[in-house]
Specification:
With 81 residues, this protein is an all-alpha fold. The chain has helices spanning 2-29, 32-39, 47-80. It has two domains: 1-40; 42-80.
């Protein structure tokens, strides 16, 4: 279990570093108008990562609730028969 958590954490850290390096490289190589169009003007903001994470968590929770409701309806209907 600890081995998996270690590798998961290492993969997450590597992914974050890779995304940040790629963004920085792309922003430095593109004209400002193009980089703002592709990445948004708020990507230089430190809060952008937090906003992205919140959006992903909200999407996950919404999809989880809809799937849970779907399974509840399916199996409640099955038990009633």
């Amino acid at each position: 279990m600890m081995k998996r958590l270690f590798w998961f954490g290492l993969g997450m850290a590597a992914g974050i570093v890779l995304v940040n390096k790629t963004r920085a490289y792309a922003r430095s190589q593109m004209p400002d108008v193009m980089s703002n169009f592709l990445m948004g003007p708020d990507m230089d903001n430190a809060q952008a990562s937090i906003q992205t994470a919140r959006g992903l968590i909200n999407d996950f929770q919404r999809l989880q609730a809809s799937r849970e409701q779907e399974l509840e309806q399916r199996f409640t209907h099955r038990q009633a028969e």
